[in-house]
Amino acid sequence: MTVVKSILLLLLIIQIVACLSIENDTISTGVVIKDPQSITSQKQIFKLGFFTPPNTTNRYLGISFTFSQETVVWVANRDTPLTDSSGSVTLSRDGNIVVLDGTTNQTVWSTNITTTTSPVINSTAQLLDTGNLVLREEDTGDVLWESFSEPTDVIVPGMTLSQNVKTGKMVALSAWKNASDPQLGRFTAGLDAFSIPQLATWDEGRPHWRSGPWNGLIFLGIKEMFYAYLDGFTQVTNDSAGNFFYSKPQENVYITASVNSTGHVLRKVWDGVAKRWNVEWTAPENECDVYGKCGAFGSCNVVKSPICTCLRGFEPGNEDEWRRGNWTNGCRRRKQLQCGGDGFERLRYMKVPDFAKPLPSRVQDECRTTCLRNCSCIAYAYDGNIGCMFWSDTLIDTQDFGSVGVDLYIRLSASEFDGHKERKLYIIIGVAVGFVCISILMFIAWWFIVKRKGSQAQDSIILEAGQMFTTDSTAIVLRNESNEVNIGELPKFTFKMLAKATNQFHEDNLLGRGGFGPVYKGVLANGKEIAGIARGILYLHRDSRLRIIHRDLKPSNVLLDQDWNPKISDFGMARIFGGNEEHGNTARVVGTYGYMAPEYGMGGRFSEKSDLYSFGVLILEIIKGKKNTHYFNDELSLRLIGYAWKMWNEGNGLSFVEESIANRETEEEIIRCIQIGLLCVQENPKDRPSVEIVLSMLSGDIVELPVPNQPAFSENGSTTGPSGSTHQNVFSSNELTLSVLDGR
């Protein structure tokens, strides 16, 4: 009996040891990883081991996240599953990574690397913290093969999708056959770079969805990118060999983009608190996102019924099919072009059609002239970053976005515009008459209402104002000042009070206009000046009773009075903190591209330090005389913050300064301001100074300034720290973060 217990105990120990991950990230010659053993990357982020998909008993070798092992980002033997748990992975005699079937001792998968120098390669395989499995020649360190070059259905930060426009060779994602079978499915996703680069998915080779052209900042066919900020730090670049690359820089949040078995592209971000993946964006999102939904020369609008209409100047190719909701045959031109005297119909807020041909130009009128000269040109559009875009032959996959997008100009016969002018005149007359009639009726109704209300209602309004604001008060205060702060108990102004304070909203009191309307200066009965304005960031963060985070500091929201004193305006996106609150989170990121702090753009986390980041951008913009969103140094491939960091870090800060103010007499003061700006745009919010410290730095109360760390998003593809080390750039949320303006 004792012997039996000893044997059972020994078997249990062997089983436990076998199940443990090998404390190494490398497979060397002679090392065999047997199912269920695994290896993990150095920082314990990724794991290489065997797994079984749901609803099956097949086993596969794959790479997954250690904290979410069901999230498999790469599969080796996707087409040749193992039927039991006898599999293993090792290095073969010729240096390849191989997966072996323990039952038959057959190789079911191999990296298949061959060299002309020697049939035997001394190699080693390593799992990196990026999730990349790399096979290297041990003596030279040369990379022989990597899993990033043969992706399955998922792209992670650091991975690259590419297409060679000369050979057509692609590195693309390919969906699983279904949720239980990683075998090659119907859908693939990758970069289409034969014209203007764009992302696309294909259904067995046929176009299924496309992102629209890449303009250097956004994809013009993804509606959400126009609102503020979705993926401004994704890179689309090319090299001399004809390869175009789409990549996601490495970052400190866990994020994936994948194509699933139904053809949807999903962007997921890991929620470390809830321990789950949140789907933050998907495409196609609706029927209109499906490629060519309305056929050639058709336009799709998801909010209309039916969703498909023919472009102006075109009619359905098959009336019966069109009425039945079958739009695949599209539309045809009513009147043929004459290549002389033709005109253009402007379609606003469009997803531009596929097959655009670019022509760099800084003037939009040049697009029209060029298109008119070419009889095969049937449409054109203009984007400030791309220039002119032209179309010939057909217009396919056009969509009406409704409120954002690109203006598309369709070439029509001159005769198409004759009847249009008459109809337009009738419409204008009808609208004008209707407006006059409605205005008269509204005025009569208003007059009766005013007469009926009488003086009693007027007195109650004045009484309400008097209860909240005493005539001898010197500041606007909250009611129940001695009680605990209640965010809902904010001061209220009646319309009559505002009208009186602004002299009936006279133009002389108009300070400026923002996204939420005009901003007026007002004077209360007690002489207190008010203005949608505060006493600056210090007042917002510290001096006011409730801490206010502005969330949209930018040049257009800083107004100047007659004495050139700056006033912060436009609080339509501000958030109020009460009690001991120091930060907040939001699922809807609002703001302006170029001024968002990385932690806010990526994860919706905002605090005082996110306002300080925006303030740092403003400092650098003032010094350079350029807007962050519009500046790019072609020679160094750097944007504004990256250029400021590089020049200051190299002790050449004066080269960053706008020429009209750059001189040796004020060099020390200017360099100090650059350093303060860089301190405010540091990547980690904890490293950024508070507003009080910034004011002390600017006033000279603090003489010695700390050395700033590497700022976020300082370069296009990588960042270089003070020590000279190079690492991948942290990239935003808005990798595919939805950013929608939402007035409160």
From TrEMBL:
Q: Which residues cross the membrane?
A: 425-449
- What CDD domains does the database record attribute to this sequence? B_lectin, EGF_CA, PAN_AP_plant
Q: Which Pfam families match?
A: B_lectin, PAN_2, Pkinase, S_locus_glycop
Highest taxon listed in the record's lineage: Eukaryota
Catalytic activity annotated for this protein? L-threonyl-[protein] + ATP = O-phospho-L-threonyl-[protein] + ADP + H(+); L-seryl-[protein] + ATP = O-phospho-L-seryl-[protein] + ADP + H(+)
Instruction: Set out the biological process GO terms recorded for this chain's protein.
Output: recognition of pollen
User: Ranges of Polar residues compositional bias?
Assistant: 711-729
Family the entry assigns? Belongs to the protein kinase superfamily. Ser/Thr protein kinase family.
Name of the featured protein: Receptor-like serine/threonine-protein kinase
